[in-house]
Design a protein that fits this description.
This protein is α/β, with parallel strands linked by helices. The chain has helices spanning 12-25, 78-87, and strands at residues 6-10, 29-31, 40-45, 48-55, 71-74, 93-97, 102-108, 114-120. It has a 4-stranded mixed beta sheet with strand order 1-4-3-2, with helices on one face. The chain has a 4-stranded mixed beta sheet with strand order 5-8-7-6, with no helix packed on it. A hairpin with a 5-residue loop joins strand 7 and strand 8.
């Protein structure tokens, strides 16, 4: 089994902020999305849509308790990602796991989704 995509459902004004964040800060690209009943966006990494954004006025922060802590990505180019986060005023926490020789960055997107990016072999 492997992760196919993840979905964020929010009102359209917040969804546009989330789209811009993932595209401008993390390098995803908005691309083709079928003509579904509700508006939204698909964000691609390479040829695959990996983040699905869907308009929903029923989903609001703290609607009910949530237990998903974060979503993690593996990447390279630690310095460039940190620079993008800094330039966009995104607060993050940096951690280094010496046993794996891996640096991690932890932060949140505009909808409050916890994100982690792992950089193996980079410090």
């Amino acid at each position: 089994m492997q992760l196919d995509h993840f979905n964020i459902a929010a009102p359209m004004d917040l969804l546009e902020e989330v789209r811009d964040f993932y595209c401008e800060v993390l390098g995803f690209e908005a691309g083709f999305r079928p003509d579904f009943q509700r508006r939204g966006f698909w964000l691609y990494t390479g040829d695959e849509p990996f983040i699905h954004l869907i308009e929903s006025d029923r989903h609001f922060a703290h609607e009910k308790p949530a237990y998903l802590d974060h979503i993690a990505f593996r990447s390279s180019g630690l310095a460039a990602v940190q620079e993008q986060l800094d330039q966009n005023g995104v607060a993050y926490r940096r951690s280094f796991i010496s046993e794996f020789e891996m640096t991690q960055l932890f932060f949140k997107d505009p909808a409050g989704t916890g994100l982690e990016i792992n950089f193996p072999g980079e410090s």
